Amino acid sequence: IRPSRFLAQKEVGERNPNAADHCNKDPEICNLYGGGGNNSTVTCCNNKCIDVSNDDKNCGACKNKCKFSQTCCRGQCVYLAYDKRHCGQCSNPCVLGELCVYGLCNYA
């Protein structure tokens, strides 16, 4: 017997990513998804809970859109091809003295 989809219960903390959070009415709802506390980077943007530390359309703050070919890393828009702190991917620093070229540290 197949269980009813209407009676199925979700695990605690699991949510439908397409569902509206309606955080404009209750901003505290975003704390549930971001772990809460002062270090939480999840905030209410356009009535949705968004992690502003890695969202290219809301980088660091709501409606702060990264430029073409930029990526949001730790709340800053960066060029992964040339940033020594985020070379090729977020949080991938080059060794002191090396340059980041085409997303590779010390490209020769």
Q: Please, could you describe this protein's structure?
A:
This protein is mainly β. Helices cover 6% and strands 17% of the residues. A two-stranded antiparallel sheet has the order 1-2. Strand 5 (100-101) and strand 6 form a beta hairpin. The model has no long low-confidence stretch (mean pLDDT 80).
Properties at a glance:
108 residues; two-stranded antiparallel ribbon; Stig-like; signal; Stigma-specific STIG1-like protein 1
Tell how many strands the DSSP assignment holds: 6
Give the N-to-C terminal Cα separation. 63 Å
Residue share in β-strands: 15-25%
- Summarize model confidence as the mean pLDDT: 80
Whole-number radius of gyration?
Answer: 19 Å
Oligomer: single chain
Judged by helices, strands and strand pairing, the structural class is mainly beta
Q: Main sheet, how many strands, which sense, barrel?
A: 2 strands, antiparallel
Poorly predicted tracts of residues? none
Q: What is the H/E order?
A: HEEEEEE
Coarse morphology: elongated
Total count of helical runs of at least 4 residues: 1
Strand arrangement, major sheet: 1-2
Helical percent range? under 10%
InterPro entries: Stig-like
Pfam family, one: Stig1
Protein name: Stigma-specific STIG1-like protein 1
Keywords: Signal
